[in-house]
């Protein structure tokens, strides 16, 4: 149950960081859709680690192998299954018990959930590595969405206290932002962000940030009231991305500091169509799209894996114990999380539209 | 699909603001649980309108009538169904077409979703009135949770820019907060909030705010990774409450401005148990509880129904048109939303624990 | 979970035989559909008891009260909720423990499932009375199906060893069969069946039978392979009707005694359309409709409640004990089950088509 | 949606007959369970083709490769993913359009469902080959069930008109039946069945049959009333096996020819426990187990692929056309279907019990 999402399009993600492979089964794709694998690979590359100074030095050659669901590159209606073979597989003699859990990681909660049998190597099923198959699934869904005139855009809205500009909430025009090496609207701010990340890295520390996402081209009238609205479904799925701790739509938390007269979106007629003058609602009212861009922000906490010494415990002995984390970890996962948010948004919105 | 939530405990909410009745069917409750109806009524009373100066003057005598599921006040395993008969039922000659949608309401998106057949009287199925059955269901679930040692606490964290104190994230002790007429920790701040609401009311305007929720007594190891974690499910359901535009867990958006070394929760041994020194994670890591209180904030936008003139359109004529809203509306729905958040949290967490 | 069915159209049934009310919430109906309540009532009347000699003497004036979901008789997109108030409500002093379970009833299994807290009065939630709301939901769905050119027909195929004729599997023409007092194609066989039922009644015994159902007007290409096919979904829901012990599609069990060359449905061109010469597949191949009528048989066991003395046990004392059942029970529930099969088929197929 | 089953344990099957691989993702398995891969392989071997005279000559070396979910052979709580690489992969120049559908196959309905884009090579996703991953999943679940004292037994109940003995419905003792080369209770009848299959083969024809399944060790009180009962779930999943056209529980269709006094299961005390004297109910009353063995029969139609000439059509030209099928097909799939029924029963019952 845990690793499956969606109603009509179901995404079943599998794999652990050091298992033989990781992958995804996508059930419910419409048939007859040509999938451009080069575009899929280019999208996945945006998430890949080791591309530059501010991400980890590990280099994963994530080559997805299609197991089923395509005939001559075209969806045939059967589930589309994909596997990426892991380069770093766990050795059999790996110590199964990570007795000293890393603060703010899923080590301890996972230990309690799975009675100590969870795969701890490299984070196991909780690893950020599992976002690679998510990106694959998102890249596939995005190609189908584009045919329908729907697009998804994301950028880094903030790193620590440094803020990028926001998308124009009425009309997104940052079409190429996903192709940027460091996806911000304001490159000067981007340079400040990079410096902040570098500073954290040198301090053996980490920083977090916010990703802004915009979905355009969705007509009014999609979604449902109450528990299956567009906000509900996006929120449910976005929290499936590791390190996410918050989501807000339109003005979000900021709306709570405004008067109704400031926050309400007046209607107007634009090019003969009903639109709103502002888009503080983020394109959704009562769980249902209103035809304006869907806008939401996602909060990513700072990477939990830091090289500074931390206080932990021995689970078996119930004693306090110092911990120093090794391995290679991003001082900030936000840049690599940008395409993941885009992917999950694409999967979710296709599930709603189809 | 839209109005049903839950996996093992399923809540099916029905009704429109002016339909004959509104209610809920709760499927999957454990059998043999004595339900104290006086406590249920007392809980529902916390949401009831017209109790004081800062809420609407309407007075709904919301008397739930149990249709099934209880035998001598004890759950029998069959679905527990409840109806509240509406006092204000729509007359047959009600104008079915609300041609001039209210800004930031679901009038327009609902019109598009239902091709103009949606019930617009009093907000129809989108009405805040539908939170009454939610509170009923929540009150029932809460009694079962209490037996399990689990409690849910909520208070107003902010109204506009005025902030209440936070719960102690390590150990909640505000047991009686729900019984307060105006549920804040710091009553002085509460008085400022009331003044702010009154000011908005006099200005024919409205204000929003944030509700903080804490769930205590949940042991480590509940929930699932990825898409069915505790955060995912709480988020999905909380967005079912009208006017919610954001949710964050633990430090939430604030975590994005901290270093990892500031945000990570070090482990410690307390009374022989593994705990964390801080609770910036809000009790959840990797979607799974870690034994600390579950903490989250919910953002409520200012009431969309304000008495100031606003710019709208005629849907049929596609022309711009001024709109002046009548009827009785809360200048701030946050105080009444407090028990609703509590109810949805209770339903969701019981569904996870059972 | 137990009492909810469907994917896009969700049916949530509630009530016990002697609770205050029984009813149903239908979530996901398309908006803008005029529901003819007289036709709904006429359909429900087909299931009503006490209409004639071969059914129980009880007379339930089942008047459904619409609580929500309709505006001026037209679906508004919000859940359609309905309640029927029970005339025979359990008195508070009803003995909650039925210690002596009726053979082949759900008394014992229900006792074990609900730890003795299940409502035993009149069969509780397991009562055949719960098929009244199912018929309501089916009658509503059928009106929407008819607009789409889809019809559902059912008749008694057999009572004990007496067999009615079958529907013409290629082209159903028994349009009025549902309106018959005793719904058989061959009235002479119907008279024999009635005599068989009367004989059982006089012997303080009961008989069962088979209901044949045909769904016409469904084009080729609906359904899904593997676990969500048309057969899977119909089977899942049909077993929700009390006393059903088997289901078969097309030739069903009889197909196992034929050669492939006898059982295969050759294709042909009829009126310019691709059809099959025979319809041994019952309109479904690989879980997906092929454009021929969907045909299936449903086996109803003889009524478990018989007046003959039977051997039971005392659950509390774990001793054997004789049992003589009182109350009023149909010596054969098949005639009244006919519209229930029709209703469940209608709900299921609408869920698939919508 | 189509290829996923289960509530707590979710099985997602992927692959086409000639795709690169076929496989399954099992989500929700309890952690800490040692899986004996040799037993899994031995179980899968029971389904493998080409083992003897009465099955097809093709030989598939179905070697499952575990991608994730196990650590040192023990379930770690993460999804267990498995792939079998196909030996016969489709060439790129394969003619994508099978214009002449095989009678009683999913060729035509699949064409209509997927607008002609379905993979027709070797039956695509509808192929019986997809039962290999089902057997894998079943074999895994069965090991967990055995630990709980639950066992599943299946045998051929009939081939055409030749009937095997039935399991003793009160106490199953045919523990080794699954290991038989030709799984019948009565070997003399088995020889007659083999002769019947051989006769069909020589006539370029095929035969079907019935499989009986018994699940033992399930205590009373599992399942749910109405739509999620044990019968509902077993029926839903069993119809996921290709060629199944009917299912019946306990006496099933035969119960319709009996009097209630003959069909009812009297209670008795046996070894201090409440049992029933007979087991005509097949272990289930009101959707809930009663502690007796769960018994059901599954009808398999004769193999649709026969070598005799048949009448088909050209889909593109809408003209009638003769068809002669080539390739290698079992004249009777029932022997190989026996472990598949066992597997699906195991998966379903584990999902209910867990």
Describe the protein's architecture and organization:
With 354 residues, chain A is of the alpha+beta class. Chain A has one domain (4-353): 4-Layer Sandwich (Chorismate synthase, AroC fold). In chain A, 24% of the residues lie in helices and 23% in strands. Chain A has seven helices and 18 strands. In chain A, a hairpin with a 2-residue loop joins strand 14 (284-285) and strand 15 (288-289). In chain A, helix 1 (37-47) packs across helix 7, helix 3 (131-147) packs across helix 7 (334-353) and helix 5 packs antiparallel against helix 7. The radius of gyration of chain A is 21 Å and the shape is globular. The two termini of chain A are 22 Å apart. The model of chain A has no long low-confidence stretch (mean pLDDT 92). At the C-D interface, strand 1, helix 2, helix 5, strand 11 and helix 6 of C face strand 1, helix 2, helix 5, strand 11 and helix 6 of D.
């Amino acid at each position: 149950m845990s690793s499956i999402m969606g109603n009509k399009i179901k995404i079943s993600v599998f794999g652990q960081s050091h298992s033989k492979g990781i992958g995804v089964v996508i059930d419910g794709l419409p048939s007859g859709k040509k999938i451009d694998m080069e575009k899929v690979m280019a999208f996945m590359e945006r998430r890949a680690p080791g591309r530059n100074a501010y991400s980890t030095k590990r280099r994963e050659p994530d080559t997805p192998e299609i197991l089923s669901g395509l005939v001559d590159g075209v969806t045939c209606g059967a589930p589309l299954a994909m596997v990426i073979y892991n380069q770093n597989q766990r050795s059999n003699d790996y110590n199964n018990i990570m007795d000293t859990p890393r603060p703010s990681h899923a080590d301890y909660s996972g230990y309690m959930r799975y009675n100590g049998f969870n795969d701890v190597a490299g984070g196991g099923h909780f690893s950020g590595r599992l976002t690679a198959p998510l990106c694959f699934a998102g890249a596939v869904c995005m190609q189908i969405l584009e045919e329908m005139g729907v697009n998804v855009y994301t950028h880094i809205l903030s790193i620590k206290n440094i803020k990028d500009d926001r998308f124009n909430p009425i009309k997104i025009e940052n079409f190429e932002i996903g192709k940027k090496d460091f996806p911000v609207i304001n490159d000067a701010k981007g340079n400040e962000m990079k410096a902040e990340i570098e500073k954290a890295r040198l301090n053996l520390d980490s920083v977090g940030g916010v990703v802004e996402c915009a979905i355009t081209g969705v007509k009014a009238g999609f979604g449902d009231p109450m528990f299956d609205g567009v906000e509900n479904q996006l929120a449910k799925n976005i929290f499936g991305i590791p390190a996410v701790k918050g989501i807000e739509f339109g003005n979000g938390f900021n709306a709570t500091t405004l008067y109704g007269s400031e926050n309400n979106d007046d209607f107007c007629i634009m090019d003969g169509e009903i639109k709103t003058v502002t888009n503080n609602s983020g394109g959704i009212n009562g769980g249902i799209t209103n035809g304006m861009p869907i806008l939401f922000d996602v909060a990513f906490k700072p990477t939990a894996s830091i090289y500074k010494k931390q206080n932990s415990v021995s689970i078996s002995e119930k004693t306090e114990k110092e911990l120093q984390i090794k391995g290679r970890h991003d001082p900030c996962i936000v840049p690599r999380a940008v395409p993941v948010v885009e992917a999950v948004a694409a999967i979710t919105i296709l599930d709603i539209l189809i």
